Amino acid sequence: MQGAGLREVSNPSEIMISQRDEPTSGVAIATMLEGIRPLMIEVQALVGNSAFGTPQRSSTGFDTKRLNMLLAVLEKRFGFRLSAQDVFLNITGGLRVEDPAIDLAVIAAIISSQQDIPLPSNITLAGEVGLSGEIRAVNRIEQRIAEAEKLGFEGIFIPKHNTKGLDAKKYNIAIRPVGKLEDIFRALFG
C-alpha cells in the first residue's frame, strides 16, 4: 500500500528475506510452497542458556509440536544438548508455514544459533527431516530450484531422493543433494 494506492508486489520472496550487510548466526533461507507458488522465506532461530529451570520453546509461524520433534531428533540422534537451552523460532513476514520442506532450514538455523556460526547467505535449503535424521524427498523440487536460481542464490541443498529424474544441467545453481543430517552438518558447520 502506497500513497497512490495498491502497488503490485512482483516478487514476494524478496520481501520475506532480510537484506543484511554481514552474516548473522541463527538465520537460514528455506524454499517453501504456498499453494503452488514457490517462496523463499527467512527462518530465524535463537538458542541460549535457560535462565530458569524449564527451558522455553517458542515458535512464531511454525508448528511448536514439529519444532519439539526436530529438537528431539537433534538431541537423541546427534547429541546436541538442547534440553537445557531456550529455543525461539521465527518465520519472517508473518507467514504461517505448513510445508514440511522447511525442516532442513529450521534445523540449520537452530544449529547455527547454538554454535554461533553464520550460514552462507547465498544458499537455501529444502527438505523434510525424518525421526532418524534422514532427509526426505519434497514435492515440486524443480519449482523450488528455479525460484532459488531466479533470486540469485548460488546453492541449494535438496534431498538426494529428489535427484532421480532431475536434470541439474539446466540450472545455473549448485544443487547439493543430502541424504542425512550429518551431510548438512559437515557441509555447513565443518
Describe this structure in words.
The protein is of the alpha/beta class and 190 residues long. The protein has one domain: Ribosomal Protein S5, domain 2. It contains 5 helices and 9 strands; from the N terminus they run H-E-E-E-H-E-H-E-E-E-H-E-E-H. It has helices at residues 12-16, 64-78, 103-115, 141-150, 181-189; strands spanning 27-34, 37-49, 57-60, 85-91, 123-125, 128-129, 135-136, 155-159, 174-178. It has a 4-stranded mixed beta sheet with strand order 1-2-4-3. A 3-stranded parallel beta sheet has the order 5-8-9, sandwiched between helices. Strands 6-7 form a two-stranded antiparallel sheet. Helix 2 (64-78) links the parallel strand 3 (57-60) and strand 4 (85-91). The radius of gyration is 16 Å and the shape is globular. The N and C termini lie far apart (44 Å). The mean pLDDT is 91.
Summarize the structure.
By secondary structure, the protein is an alpha/beta fold. The chain has 5 helices and 9 strands; from the N terminus they run αβββαβαβββαββα. It has a 4-stranded mixed sheet. It has a 3-stranded parallel sheet with strand order 5-8-9, with helices on both faces. Strands 6-7 form a two-stranded antiparallel sheet.
Write the layout of secondary structure elements.
Elements: H1 12-16, E1 27-34, E2 37-49, E3 57-60, H2 64-78, E4 85-91, H3 103-115, E5 123-125, E6 128-129, E7 135-136, H4 141-150, E8 155-159, E9 174-178, H5 181-189
Parallel strand pairs: 3-4, 5-8, 8-9
Antiparallel strand pairs: 1-2, 2-4, 6-7
